[in-house]
Amino acid sequence: MRNKMRQLAKVTTGLLLIAALASCGGKGQPDDAGGSSSSSESSSSASSSDDKDKPDSTESTEGKPDTKAKTLTGTISDGVEPGCLMLKSDGVKYQLVGDATKKLKSGMKVEVTGKVSDNNMSTCMEGTVFEVDTVEKVS
After folding, report:
1. What is the pTM (predicted TM-score) of this model?
2. Per the UniProt record, which residue ranges are transmembrane (predicted)?
3. Rounded to whole angstroms, what are the CA distances from 89 to 17, 47, 54, 81?
4. Quick one: 70-137 is in which CATH superfamily?
5. What is the mean pLDDT of residues 66-91?
6. Where along the chain do its domains lie?
């Protein structure tokens, strides 16, 4: 009985492995010997839709980060992750980064100047990343 259970476990494991490997494989491209016309149809329809996808010179910047210099005022708070400094200004939460933030501590009321960064990845997992250029304490 024990041998049958082991054998069943091996067969089941093998089948699962085969299924997993089969699902990982990419779809193969069919040989051109069949002369499929669908590839030429799809390329002609793709080229006509390419013109629609090209950005217009008057395209809106809505939804894109504002990379102009800004000044934010608020009270520094700690983020949920260690070492993360947050500032809430006008209802928006910012994660402050940069050399100018090294002396900032939670509870300080400050005015910071800098810009929103769309190039920084963060482990803080909250707020919009804001690269600080200058810091001034306010009362």
Report:
1. 0.52
2. none
3. 53, 46, 36, 20
4. Nucleic acid-binding proteins (2.40.50.140)
5. 92
6. 70-137
